[in-house]
Amino acid sequence: MELIFGIFLGIGLAAACGFRIFVPLLVISVAAKCGHLTLANGFEWISSTPALICFAVATGLEIAAYYVPWLDNLLDTIASPAAVVAGIVITAACVSGMSPLLQWSLAVIAGGGASAAVQGITVTARAASSLTSGGLANPLVATVETAASTALSILALFLPILAGGAALLGMIYAVILLFRRRQPQAAVQGQ
């Protein structure tokens, strides 16, 4: 049962990385430092004091940077691949009790996929906000993203099945939207 909780915890936290990269890392660093979370072998460094300080500083800088219009869109180009990497690492850190091959395969597919799906949605939302409001509504988008990352990270710690399940449903929904979006384009191209 601990393995199942670890998998869903990792997926939920990986999805939270799609909103903000460093918020979930800070949350698990604090949780591990306080003894609430046991990290997989090789990931104990996440609970070290230097890592906690780095995650706290990085979280503050990341949140502040997203309140600067147009800089937030530039950050998305860096944040997209970084969110996927963070989702992979955080999932691997939460999953223990399986072979390294399975641990990393799960981390890449589920963790990377969850963070990529959420990051794709946030990039699209920010681009739409920038185009329709000239960037004036972007601070509202940034606030919602930060709140979502924080809430999902905390939810994943205390109710991992719920958070991981919500992340999986969100990924399925994103895939369905992607296929629906491509079907009309394929029909137009076929004419």
Identify the notable features of this structure and list them briefly.
191 residues; mainly alpha; 7 helices
Overview of the structural elements:
The chain has about 190 residues and is mainly α. It has one domain (about 1-190). Helices cover about 80% and strands about 0% of the residues. It contains seven helices and no strands. The protein has helices at about 1-20, 20-35, 50-65, 70-95, 100-135, 140-160, 160-190. α1 runs antiparallel to α4 and α2 runs parallel beside α6.
How would you summarize this macromolecular structure in one to three sentences?
The protein has 191 residues and is mainly alpha-helical.
Count of discrete alpha- or pi-helical segments spanning 4 or more residues? 7
In sequence order, what are the helices and strands, one letter per element?
Answer: HHHHHHH
Q: Low-confidence spans: pLDDT under 50, at least 5 residues?
A: none
> What is the C-alpha radius of gyration, as a whole number of Å?
17 Å
What is the β-strand count? 0
- Helix proportion range: over 70%
Strand content: under 5%
Explain the layout of strands and helices.
Layout: H1 2-19, H2 22-33, H3 49-65, H4 71-94, H5 100-133, H6 138-158, H7 160-190
Helix pairs in contact: 1-2, 1-4, 1-5, 1-6, 1-7, 2-3, 2-6, 4-5, 5-6, 5-7, 6-7
